[in-house]
Amino acid sequence: MKAKESIDELNRAGINRRLHRLLILLASMTVVLLVAGALVTSNEAGDSVPDWPLSFGRWVINSNYFVANVRFEYSHRVIAFFVGATTLVLAIRALIKGAKPLIRNLALAAFAGVVMQALIGGARVSFPAYKPLIAIAHALVAQSFLALIVGLVVITSARWREDKSLTEDSAHPSARWLVILTICAVLAQAALGAGFRHGAFGVIPHMAGAAVVFLLIVWTSLTIVHYHGRDAYLRRPALALLTLLSFQLILGLLAYAARLQSHNDPQPLEPMITLTLAHVVVGALTLASVVVLALRCWGTLSPANQDDVQVRVSLRAQAGQSCGYPV
Q1: Residues 77, 55: contact at Cβ < 8 Å?
Q2: Which of 131, 273, 285, 288 is most enclosed, with most CB atoms within 10 A?
Q3: Cα→Cα distances 108→17, 33, 38, Å
């Protein structure tokens, strides 16, 4: 029986390794897709292709059409297609290769998310009168998809499967719940940023959201460093988060200043385009870092007192056998 369990565990580890490599590729492709989407918005190219799902009535357009802003919008669609195809491959592999239920369900959720994102993108083209509001939903689903893929990267990694002892989450409020609150704030801020860039509302809501995100990231990161600074597994993403926050604040201020300076320009110009693009990308990386920190907190921190740690280890081991949590 023990030999069979060992073989099964090795097989699952092999499945996770292959899925992990595919997920790293998919996460990288998603960041590229976010860059392409930011270029569409920054260049005001969203209306350059008038139909969907075809482009000028074709799946593959002639080179004569691939000019001006069409380059950005059509490239965005092509990259989105490859992200969707890769997500479908991920879901199929998770289903047929015997991945644990949690991983299978999250892979299916990722595919559902990418289908939803495509439909929202199509709705933006089909209903131009509502494009600012649709663009907010489009950005929110995009960032949520990235968060989901990054989460899958974490839970399929070899480090996640290592045997780790639980540490008491002695912070008040709990570090585990602080990081969840921070994820929600970062996602909300991504939606507010999209609303501002697409003209749904002014900059004030985005600035207010930035202040909330700043406070939560600093609070969460310093809590981790103060209570668990000796644990590199938690300290490193917390410090990375603070570094990304610093860059994001600088980029946000520069991007807004460039936008004000270019208010009378006939079309978007540099440096506003590059600064806005960098601001969006660093925002996505900030979200990814918060997700990594959240999973690591929930995987290693326990609300129980020290006497109950062994009980929690036993319960987590049982959950890991059926749900894919670290054992």
Answers
A1: yes
A2: 288
A3: 18, 20, 26
